[in-house]
Design a protein that fits this description.
With 84 residues, this protein is mainly α. The chain contains 3 helices and no strands.
Length: 84
């Protein structure tokens, strides 16, 4: 199991309200976690996948955020993840 790092974030009440809609009104067969904390963890994990894996579907999220040239404008993976 990978080590976890605890972080603290502040979100606007409006953002929390919108994210809670995903948690509280999710379809029964969805992959959405059962808590706001779980949802934020899932979003962060997917975003990290977009940085780590050039061919992943998550890479588009990273590119949309404007990191396509600064961070992911080249095909690169982290050591140990070359075949992930």
């Amino acid at each position: 199991m990978k080590a976890k790092v605890k972080i603290e974030i502040e979100l606007s009440q409006e953002t929390v309200t919108w994210l809670n809609i995903l948690v509280e009104e999710k379809p029964a067969a969805s992959h959405i976690p059962d808590s706001l904390k779980g949802l934020v963890e899932q979003i962060a994990t997917h975003f990290a996948e977009g940085i780590r894996r050039p061919g992943s579907w998550e890479r588009e999220m990273v590119n949309i955020m404007g990191y396509d040239k600064a961070l992911t404008g080249y095909e690169r993976t982290l050591p140990g993840y070359e075949n992930a």
